[in-house]
C-alpha cells in the first residue's frame, strides 16, 4: 500500500520544479500553470470523501486497483500532451483525472493498513504511513529536478513502472475482499465537488478577474454556500457521504483545523519556492531542487521525532511544537528572500520543514484513530479532503497575491526608468503572467524602448519578484500561527484502545 500511494504524494509537488520548463515549452501563462498544479489538488479534495465511501461499499482491494489504473493512465496522458493551443486544457483535464485516481486509491490503501494493525501498534504504523507520505511529498521536487534535466514529460511517465509494481504487489498480498451493502450518497458527492471547485475557481481567477469582479465573489461565496448546503444535507441523510458527527469529538476537530491551516503552506511552498529559485536566484531545475532539499531535510528529521512524541505523549505536544517552529521558520525565511542568496536561507528553510514534520503525522494519525462509529475509510476521506482543499486554497490565494504584488512592483520599477504608465502596466502584467525562470537568458525580445528598458532592469525585476514572494511566505507563517492557536485547544487525550471492539478510551496527556 505504501508503494501504491507513493505516486499520489510525489505528484502533489513534482510538477512544481518543472513548472518553468513546462511554461516555456508549451507557452502557458503563470495562472494556467498554477491550474495545472491545482487541478490535481482540487480533484483530490473534491473526490476523497467519495473515494473513502466507495472503498467501504465496493471493497478496499477493488477500489485500490481501480484508482491505480485511473491514476497511471492519466499520468501517461499528461506526459503525452501535444505542443499546440490545446496543451493547457489537456494538462489540466488529465491532472484532474490523476487526482480522481489518487482519491479513489488512497482511502482504500489506508483502510487496508489500519485493518492489519491493532490499536496499540497502529500509532507507529500510521506514523510511518503518514510520515513517509509527507516525505514523499517533499521528495517530489528533488525527483522532479533530476527528471526535468532529461525531459519534463518524464515526471509523469515515471508513474507507469511504479504503478505496475504496485499492482503486482497488491495481487501478491491477497487482500481480503469485504464489500458492504450500503447506498452511495451521490447528491452529497456532487455538492462537495461543486462547492470546492467553485470556491477555489474564484480564488484562483481573482488574479485575472480582480477582487472587485462580481464573477470572483460569485464563485467564492457561491462555492462556500454550496458547502454549507452539503453539510446540512449530510446531517439529514440516512447514509451520508461523510459522517459529520465525528466533529463532535473536540480532538478530531482540532486535528482537522491544524491540518487545514498547516496545509495552506506545506504543498504550496514547493511551487512558490521552486519558481522563486528559478526566477530570482536564476537557478536551474536541479539547483532549485537542491534549494528545496533544505526544507526536506528538516522535515525528514522532525517527522521521526514527531512520531515518537505521538506514541509517548499524544498529538498535542507535537502539534504545538510543530506549528510554532513552522510559523517562526517561514517568517525568518521570508525575511531572507530578498538577499538573493541560496546559501543564507538554508537554516530557515530547514526550520520551516521541521515544523511541518513535527505536526503532520501526529495530527493525521490522531484524527484517524478517532473514527468513532465511522469507518476508517470515511474518516480518512474527511482528513485528506481537509488537507487537499487547504492546499488548493493556499495555491490559489498565494498565487493571486504573488501575481498582484509582482505586477505592482514591476510597474514601479519600469516607471522609475521612464516607461509610460500604461506600457509599464502591460509589460509588468506580461512578466507576472509568464514567469518562466532564468530571466537573464529569457529576457524580452525586440528593440523597442520598453523591451530595452526591461532587459536592463532584469536584475531589479528579480528583486521585485523576491519581494512579492515575501508576501507569500509571510502569509504561510501566519497560517502556521493560526494552526498553533488551534493546537492549544486540543484536549490532550489519546486513543488507547480499539474503538471498534472496546470503545474509544481516551487517556490524559
UniProtKB/TrEMBL annotation:
Pfam families linked to this entry: MFS_1
GO biological process: one example: response to antibiotic
Keywords of this entry: Antibiotic resistance, Membrane, Transmembrane, Transmembrane helix
CDD domains registered for this protein in UniProt: MFS_MMR_MDR_like
Gene Ontology annotations for the cellular component aspect, listed alphabetically: plasma membrane
Superkingdom of this protein's organism: Bacteria
Transmembrane spans: 34-52, 64-87, 99-119, 126-148, 154-172, 184-203, 209-232, 252-276, 288-306, 471-490
Cellular compartment(s): Cell membrane
Annotated ranges, domain Major facilitator superfamily (MFS) profile: 1-495
Membrane topology recorded in Swiss-Prot or TrEMBL: Multi-pass membrane protein
Gene3D superfamilies named among the record's database cross-references: MFS general substrate transporter like domains, Multidrug resistance protein D
Keyword set includes Transmembrane helix: yes
GO MF entry, a single one: transmembrane transporter activity
Claim: Transmembrane is one of the keywords in the record: yes
Name the UniProt record assigns to this protein: MFS transporter
Organism of provenance: Streptomyces fructofermentans
Amino acid at each position: 500500500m505504501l508503494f501504491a500511494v507513493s505516486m499520489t504524494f510525489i505528484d502533489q509537488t513534482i510538477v512544481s520544479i518543472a513548472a518553468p520548463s513546462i511554461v516555456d515549452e508549451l507557452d502557458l501563462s503563470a495562472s494556467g500553470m498554477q491550474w495545472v498544479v491545482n487541478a490535481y489538488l482540487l480533484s483530490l479534495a473534491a473526490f476523497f470523501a467519495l473515494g473513502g465511501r466507495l472503498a467501504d461499499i465496493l471493497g478496499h482491494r477493488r477500489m485500490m486497483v481501480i484508482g491505480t489504473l485511473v491514476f497511471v493512465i492519466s499520468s501517461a496522458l499528461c506526459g503525452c500532451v501535444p505542443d499546440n493551443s490545446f496543451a493547457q486544457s489537456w494538462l489540466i483535464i488529465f491532472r484532474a483525472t490523476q487526482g480522481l485516481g489518487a482519491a479513489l486509491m488512497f482511502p482504500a490503501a489506508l483502510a487496508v493498513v489500519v485493518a492489519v494493525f491493532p490499536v496499540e501498534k497502529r500509532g507507529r504504523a500510521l506514523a510511518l504511513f503518514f510520515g513517509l507520505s509527507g516525505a514523499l511529498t517533499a521528495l517530489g521536487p528533488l525527483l522532479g529536478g533530476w527528471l526535468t534535466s532529461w525531459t519534463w514529460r518524464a515526471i509523469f511517465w515515471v508513474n507507469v513502472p511504479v504503478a505496475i509494481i504496485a499492482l503486482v504487489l497488491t495481487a501478491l498480498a491477497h487482500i481480503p475482499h469485504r464489500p458492504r451493502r450500503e447506498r452511495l450518497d451521490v447528491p452529497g458527492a456532487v455538492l462537495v465537488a461543486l462547492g470546492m471547485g467553485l470556491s477555489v475557481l474564484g480564488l484562483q481567477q481573482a488574479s485575472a478577474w480582480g477582487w472587485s469582479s462580481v464573477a470572483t465573489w460569485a464563485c467564492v461565496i457561491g462555492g462556500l454556500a454550496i458547502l454549507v448546503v452539503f453539510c446540512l444535507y449530510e446531517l439529514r441523510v440516512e447514509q451520508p457521504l461523510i459522517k459529520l458527527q465525528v466533529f463532535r469529538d473536540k480532538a478530531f476537530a482540532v486535528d482537522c483545523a491544524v491540518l487545514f491551516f498547516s496545509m495552506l503552506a506545506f504543498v504550496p511552498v514547493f511551487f512558490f519556492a521552486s519558481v522563486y529559485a528559478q526566477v530570482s536566484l536564476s537557478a536551474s531545475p536541479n539547483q532549485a531542487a537542491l534549494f528545496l532539499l533544505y526544507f526536506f531535510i528538516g522535515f525528514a528529521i522532525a517527522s521521526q521525532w514527531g512520531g515518537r512524541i505521538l506514541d509517548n505523549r499524544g498529538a498535542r505536544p507535537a502539534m504545538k511544537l510543530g506549528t510554532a517552529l513552522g510559523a517562526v521558520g517561514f517568517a525568518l525565511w521570508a525575511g531572507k528572500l530578498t538577499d538573493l542568496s541560496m546559501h543564507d536561507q538554508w537554516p530557515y528553510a530547514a526550520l520551516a520543514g521541521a515544523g511541518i514534520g513535527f505536526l503532520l503525522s501526529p495530527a493525521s494519525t490522531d484524527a484517524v484513530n478517532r473514527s468513532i462509529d465511522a469507518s476508517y475509510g470515511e474518516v480518512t476521506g474527511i482528513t485528506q479532503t481537509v488537507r487537499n482543499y487547504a492546499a488548493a486554497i493556499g495555491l490559489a490565494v498565494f498565487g493571486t497575491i504573488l501575481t498582484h504584488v509582482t505586477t505592482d512592483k514591476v510597474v514601479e520599477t519600469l516607471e522609475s526608468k521612464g516607461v509610460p504608465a500604461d506600457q509599464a502596466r502591460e509589460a509588468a502584467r506580461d512578466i507576472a503572467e509568464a514567469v518562466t525562470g532564468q530571466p537573464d537568458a529569457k529576457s524580452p525580445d525586440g528593440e523597442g524602448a520598453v523591451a530595452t528598458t526591461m532587459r536592463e532592469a532584469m536584475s531589479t525585476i528579480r528583486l521585485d519578484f523576491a519581494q512579492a514572494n515575501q508576501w507569500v511566505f509571510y502569509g504561510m507563517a501566519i497560517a502556521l500561527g493560526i494552526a498553533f492557536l488551534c493546537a492549544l485547544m486540543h484536549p490532550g487525550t489519546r486513543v488507547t484502545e480499539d474503538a471498534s471492539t472496546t470503545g474509544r478510551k481516551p487517556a490524559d496527556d
